[in-house]
């Protein structure tokens, strides 16, 4: 009977009846974790955590591992500062956590982050914008090949035709002198025209003698 009582007294632990449930279906928890994760995008805030020895607490390191679910596609769409995910991944390394306790490491991280933001747009445009096509270069004209020699055959080659001589016209003769206005039957020698005053004087003398 004693053994029976002992077995009755020893009971298996039962699950708690009242399971905690967020009154707002986890909305407040979601917003708090989202805010904390995005604070990790600031190297100065990480330096603050290291200076206050948060990274020496195992529970806090486990919390950082738990927050890696924000890298999943269904949660990453709510992230406005994607650098926080990069630093969250680095915080999983103990060497990085220890280095961020020094102000010099904080300044280096902040400077590199600034350079990334400064050149981010230009670096993106290099891969997004289409590059112009190279201009075609005009090729130099190909040299004209010399004519191929005729093949040697036993067929006689026809003689080239003789050159044709074109007669050159003789220069035109000068025009003949104009014919004399005198009739052809008169003898050569000087003659006096009818209107010559000497002829008129001779006629008058003849008329006197006759009269």
TrEMBL record:
**Subcellular location(s) of the protein:** Nucleus
Listed Basic and acidic residues bias regions: 195-211
Give one Pfam hit by family name.
Med31
Keyword Ribosomal protein set for record: no
Note whether Transmembrane helix occurs among the keywords: no
Q: Which GO terms describe its biological process?
A: regulation of transcription by RNA polymerase II
* Key words of the record: Activator, Nucleus, Transcription, Transcription regulation
- Give the source's domain of life in one word: Eukaryota
Give Gene Ontology CC terms: core mediator complex; mediator complex
Q: Residues annotated as region Disordered?
A: 1-22, 177-211
Q: Name one GO molecular function term.
A: transcription coregulator activity
Q: In which family does this protein belong, per the annotation?
A: Belongs to the Mediator complex subunit 31 family.
Q: What does this protein do?
A: Component of the Mediator complex, a coactivator involved in the regulated transcription of nearly all RNA polymerase II-dependent genes. Mediator functions as a bridge to convey information from gene-specific regulatory proteins to the basal RNA polymerase II transcription machinery. Mediator is recruited to promoters by direct interactions with regulatory proteins and serves as a scaffold for the assembly of a functional preinitiation complex with RNA polymerase II and the general transcription factors.
Can you state the subunit structure given in the record? Component of the Mediator complex.
Name it.
Answer: Mediator of RNA polymerase II transcription subunit 31
Q: Which gene carries the instructions for this protein?
A: LOC104606371
């Amino acid at each position: 009977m004693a053994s029976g009582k002992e077995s009755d007294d020893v009971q298996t632990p039962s699950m708690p009846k009242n399971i905690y449930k967020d009154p707002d279906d986890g909305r407040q928890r979601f917003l708090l974790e989202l805010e904390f994760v995005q604070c990790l995008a600031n190297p100065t805030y990480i330096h603050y955590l290291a200076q206050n020895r948060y990274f020496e607490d195992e529970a806090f390191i486990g919390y950082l591992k738990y927050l890696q679910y924000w890298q999943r596609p269904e949660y990453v769409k709510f992230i406005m500062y994607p650098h926080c995910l990069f630093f969250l991944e680095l915080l999983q390394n103990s060497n990085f956590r220890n280095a961020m306790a020094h102000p010099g490491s904080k300044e280096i991280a902040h400077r590199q982050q600034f350079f990334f933001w400064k050149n981010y747009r230009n670096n993106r445009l290099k891969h997004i914008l289409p590059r112009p096509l190279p201009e075609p270069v005009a090729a130099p004209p190909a040299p004209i090949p010399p004519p191929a020699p005729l093949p040697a055959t036993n067929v006689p080659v026809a003689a080239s035709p003789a050159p044709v001589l074109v007669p050159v016209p003789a220069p035109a003769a000068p025009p003949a002198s104009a014919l004399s206005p005198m009739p052809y039957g008169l003898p050569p020698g000087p003659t006096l025209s009818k209107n010559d005053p000497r002829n008129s004087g001779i006629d008058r003398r003849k008329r006197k003698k006759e009269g």
